[in-house]
Write a structure and sequence with these properties.
Elements (H helix, E strand, L loop, with lengths): L8 H21 L3 H12 L5 H7 L9 H26 L28 H15 L3 E2 L5 E3 H4 L19 E2 L4 H7 L4 E3 L4 H10 L4 E10 L11 E11 L4 H16 L5 E8 L2 E11 L2 E11 L1 H6 L8 E8 H9 L12 H4 L3
Parallel strand pairs: 1-5
Antiparallel strand pairs: 2-4, 3-4, 5-6, 6-10, 7-8, 8-9, 9-10
Helix pairs in contact: 1-2, 1-4, 2-4, 5-11
Bound molecules: adenosine-5'-[phenylalaninyl-phosphate] (FA5).
Adenosine-5'-[phenylalaninyl-phosphate] binds next to strand 6, strand 8, strand 9, strand 10 and helix 11.
């Protein structure tokens, strides 16, 4: 067997020096990231780069010359890398210290960042406030944990009324006597309606009043496509001299056409609430059926008396609308449960 052909050390060194020179010249001349990438592949490409090709010849250098050849190879490698890095820095503007890899193309758009959004219910609440604000109603707030007076008694709901049934309410038990001392002996519960805020506002404000209150309410309802045990209501209250059912119908109609548009049919039908007389319920027509979106009526004189008003002097109307039901028709959401499962694939759509 004939011995493998060897390469003289001088030839190897000459080839390396020529390679270094042309690499330095070329990296120094590139004008944009495309040319830079082409030069990078040409000289230091992992499979077919020129440096790789010369490096493979190291095996053909005579044993005693191998060490010198290896050292030269390392020197040339370093000077090519230096020229490459300088070129990357020049092309990328030099500002970013981390930009060392020629595969980085500063002209390409960066990875898309997803921007968070408001929950569809929050968006609906903002829109409702906006519409009612234009009709002269300002927002008011009340607590979600309520006492018997504000949730029932002041609203003309008697002690024996079925609406007080423990099966229809989330009552809270007071754990300690200290809590009882601070909060009083009243039964506490998660409010079942925002009508509680009517009472709180009337107790502390003299007419004329024109408020809305938007917030969460709680009922042990079984969840289905239109019911959830926690949902939001928008309460409205207007108290002044000579407020009539015609004013209520006008405001409900103006609200409904602003929010739903003219093409969604709505209807108002007689109903009953202990705190309004007469009382009505409002429905919109959607997906082939009437869906109730709120109750309303003329504030019962006994409620006005309970808060210290004179029913001979002032009158008013109130309404309570289901925010989820309004959000659902706006966005064509067929099941209320989607609003509370927090699936980002659903939430991203709004
Ligand atoms: C009331 O809560 C009254 N407080 C409304 C009212 C206010 C009447 C002022 C008169 C004067 P009702 O229980 O019907 O009424 O609820 C009002 C709306 O809340 C319903 O029309 C419906 O849109 C919504 N709603 C009721 N229960 C649920 C539930 N479990 N899940 C989602 N929305 C509901």
């Amino acid at each position: 067997m004939s011995p493998a052909a060897t390469i003289p050390l001088e030839d190897f060194i000459k080839e390396l020096e020529d390679l270094a020179q042309s690499a330095i010249e070329e990296f120094g001349a590139v004008a944009d990231s495309e040319q830079l990438e082409a030069a990078r592949i040409e000289f230091v490409g992992a499979r077919k780069g020129k440096f790789k090709t010369v490096q493979k010849k190291l095996g053909s250098i005579d044993g005693p010359d191998k060490k010198a050849a290896g050292m030269k190879l390392n020197d040339v490698k370093k000077s090519i890398e230096k020229a490459l890095n300088e070129s990357v820095e020049r092309i990328s503007g030099g500002g970013n210290e981390k930009v060392r890899d020629a595969k980085f193309d500063p002209t390409l758009p960066g990875p898309q960042q997803r921007v968070g959004k408001l929950h569809p219910i929050t968006q609906t609440i903002e829109e409702l406030k906006d519409i009612m604000g234009r009709l002269g109603f300002t927002p008011a707030d009340g607590p979600e944990i309520e006492d018997d007076w504000h949730n029932f008694k002041a609203l003309n709901i008697s002690d024996s009324h079925p609406a007080r049934d423990p099966l229809d309410n989330f009552y809270l038990s007071l754990a300690s006597s200290r809590e009882k001392h601070v909060l009083g002996d009243n039964d506490l519960l998660m409010r079942t309606q925002t009508s509680t805020v009517q009472i709180r506002v009337m107790e502390t404000t003299q007419p004329p009043i024109r408020i809305i209150s938007l917030g969460r309410v709680y009922r042990p309802d079984t969840a289905d496509s239109t019911h959830y045990p926690m949902f939001h209501q928008m309460e409205g209250l207007m108290i002044d001299e000579l407020v009539t059912l015609a004013d209520l119908k006008t405001v409900l109609k103006l609200f409904a056409t602003s929010y739903l548009g003219n093409e969604v049919p709505i209807r108002i039908r007689p109903s009953f609430f202990p705190f309004t007389e007469p009382s009505v319920e409002a429905d919109y027509f959607w997906n082939g059926k009437w869906v109730e979106f709120g109750g309303a009526g003329i504030v019962d004189p006994s409620v006005l008396t309970a808060v210290g008003y004179d029913p001979e002097q002032v009158s008013g109307f109130a309404f309570g609308l289901g925010v989820e039901r309004l959000c659902m028709i706006r966005h064509q959401i067929t099941d209320i449960r989607y609003l509370f499962t927090n699936d980002v694939r659903f939430l991203r759509q709004f």
